[in-house]
Amino acid sequence: MGVMPIMRVPRHAQTTKRTTFNWISKATLWAYLVWSLESIIVIRVGSERLANFQQNSNKRFDEVIYNIIFLSILIPHFLLPIASWRHGPEVAIFKNMWTHYQLKYLKITGTPIVFPNLYSLTWGLCIFSWALSFAVILSQNYLQDDFELWHSFAYYHIIAMLDGFCSLWYINCNAFGTASMGLATNLHKALEAEHPALKLAQFRHLWVDLSHMMQQLGRAYSNMYGIYCMVIFFTTTISLYGSLSEILEHGLSYKEMGLFVIVGYCMTLLFIICNEAYHATRKVGLEFQMRLLNVNLGAIDRSTQREVEMFLVAIAKNPPIMNLDGFTNINRELFTANISYMSTYLIVLMQFKLTLLRQGTKVMKKIVNTIFNSSTTLAADDEFEE
């Protein structure tokens, strides 16, 4: 798809970097080609939607909102070079950090990090991302009157890209949790051995590297996931308003069901991202900290006690926070904050809608009264003439 054109270095290459990014590499040139071809259909569909909206005689506020929804979904495509490719070097750094961490982990613990079913999970999520993309877009073609079938070709790759980023986040967060659990297991084995101070110091360095990787993940994908969250917030708010507004005015129909599909889809993606980040942070930080606090200091020597204390200080000084390069922390609080902000904007928009409905009702009453008064006056004039 050309979303992140990084390349794996051949095994025989004389370098410690296993992943690289270059603006003129084969992967990047392929990304240019794919993005350019996709842009043709996206621009055509976007232009037609914009032209239909401008030529439509019905310029109600609700129709403006409705047209904005499907135009906004096209925005991530044009932001891809800025938000994703520009951070290619940071993504390569993150990938190389994982490679070096696994080698270091193997040397210190003597056992590799085992990610269960990683290959099948990756392919499964890839296939599921495209299947979900087709399901969401084709449902809009069925439920929305003006969503033509050929328009759907501009949206498939965008929705699949959003699904892919969510899958990538899920895999990385689970990888952090798996690495943390493996490290904790080896930590307990080391504490049961004699004079474990040196081993504990090595495990402390491993944990700090794991925490730094979590922070690097946020830096590497900060723009992409930041825009991702903003598009979800905007699309969900507008879709909710559009559906509730139409229900108030015309009742429930297929059109509103299509908008509810978009709302459910967007909120599910946001919940997965926030929930997985929360679990990764808890497993690497809080749970690991609790394991150290439960160590019986009376049963170990003084040097090991000092290493345990230094380990706890390292955890406090290097909190494993999933942070988008300082913009916001990704956790469950972000999900609830988004719901709170959506509710606030939705209340404002619905107040605006109710005001329009009341004004429309007043105008209709005036028209009816005018007609009634005119009819009464004509009838009285006819009686007077007779």
Low-confidence stretches: none
Oligomer: single chain
Distance between the termini: 85 Å
Q: What class do helices, strands and sheet pairing give?
A: mainly alpha
Summary, kept brief:
With 386 residues, the protein is an all-alpha fold. Helix content is 77%, strand content 1%. Strands 1-2 form a two-stranded antiparallel sheet.
Mind explaining what this structure looks like?
This protein has 386 residues and is mostly helical. The protein is elongated and about 80 Å long. 29% of the residues are buried. Helix content is 77%, strand content 1%.
List keywords for this structure.
386 residues, two-stranded antiparallel ribbon, 2 strands
Topology overview:
Elements: E1 7-8, E2 19-20, H1 26-55, H2 61-72, H3 75-83, H4 88-109, H5 118-143, H6 156-192, H7 197-220, H8 222-250, H9 254-293, H10 302-317, H11 332-385
Helix pairs in contact: 1-2, 2-8, 3-8, 4-7, 5-6, 5-9, 6-7, 6-9, 7-10, 8-9, 8-11, 9-10, 9-11
